Amino acid sequence: MHKVNSRYFINIKFRGTHYHGWQIQPGSISVQEVLEEALKVILREKVSLTGAGRTDTGVHSTCYFAHFDSSHHLLHSNKGLVKRINKYLPCDIAVSEIRKVQKEAHARFSAISRTYKYFIVTRKDPFRTETAWYIDYQIDTGLMNEACRILMEYSDFTSFARLHSNAKTNICRIYEAAWTHEANSVIVFTITADRFLRNMVRAITGTMIDVGRGKTSLEEFRRIIEDKNRGSAGKSAPACGLFLTDIRYPEEIFV
User: Fold this and answer.
1) What share of the chain is helix, strand, coil (3-state, %, to 5)?
2) Where in the sequence of the chain do the CATH 3.30.70.660 domains occur?
3) Model-level pTM greater than 0.85?
4) What is the mean pLDDT of residues 102-109?
5) Residue 78 pLDDT > 90, yes or no?
6) What is the DSSP string of 101-140?
7) Which residues pair with 11 in a beta bridge?
8) What is the DSSP letter of 148?
């Protein structure tokens, strides 16, 4: 008898330090490869995951979604299944939940917003070396928040896009962008948009740090965006401080 496949979203978190991003790459270990192997062993069937998008080598996520089709049913209510998968996975990848979704739901294309946070520490901390960017100079977050307000006036972010990325469009709608101070000398950049270009958040972060240091004026920051040229912007911030922290979907896709 032919088995009917159902579609599921799997929500995971991972520390990306030892992975070459989410997506499978020849000769390099990826989060997708490790998770597909775990699902194949536990579900006893070959599983092909489609992720919410690429992440760069060393980038982390506290909320990442992928979808897959399976002949198994009621996975979303099986807490024991999640526990078994987590026992198989290495310590730097964890499954939060598995939910059944509509057959046409797509982890990447159904998303309506994504949120990234970039973490900076201004005091050396050996416990944050893989999860934050340590800087030993002063930055003016007031100026950087002024740059955020300028950023939100625009929608074409070619100046912050990785070259030769084959993106069909460099247009993105930013809903939120702000720098905040937290305890223990931590500074956080939070940015939410409908979509992001490859390397976009790290390029924006690095360029805004130049604003905060006084190396780039607010007028120059505006010109960088309007130039639509990656060569005009600053260096990308290191991958270690970047976290994908939220992906939102329409509630109606969940069964």
Assistant:
1) 30, 30, 40
2) 113-245
3) yes
4) 97
5) no
6) E-TT--TTTT--EEEEEEEEESS--TTSTTTSEE--S---
7) 65, 97
8) H
| Token duo for residue 92 | 């730097």
Two tokens, residue 238: 């290191």
CA–CA gap between residue 85 and residue 108 (Å, rounded):
23
Confidence (pLDDT) at 243: 98
Across 51-64, b (16+ Cβ under 10 Å) vs e yields: bbbbbbebbbbebb
Place of tokens 């993106």: 167
Angle between helices 31-43 and 79-88 (to 10 degrees): 120
> Which of the residues are catalytic?
56
Residue 84: pLDDT over 60: yes
**Residues counted in the chain:** 255
Q: Angle at the Cα of 225 (from 219 to 231), degrees rounded to 5?
A: 105
> In the CATH hierarchy, which fold is given to the domain comprising 6-109?
Alpha-Beta Plaits (3.30.70)
Q: Does domain 113-245 have CATH number 3.30.70.660?
A: yes
Chain position carrying tokens 């978190």: 13
Nearest Cα residue to 63 out of 10, 132, 25: 10
Sorted by sequence, the CB contacts under 8 Å of residue 219 that are 6+ apart come out as none
Residue span(s) of the chain under CATH 3.30.70.580 come to 6-109
Cβ contact 8:71 at 8 Å: no
In this predicted structure, the answer to whether residue 128 has a pLDDT above a threshold of 60 is yes
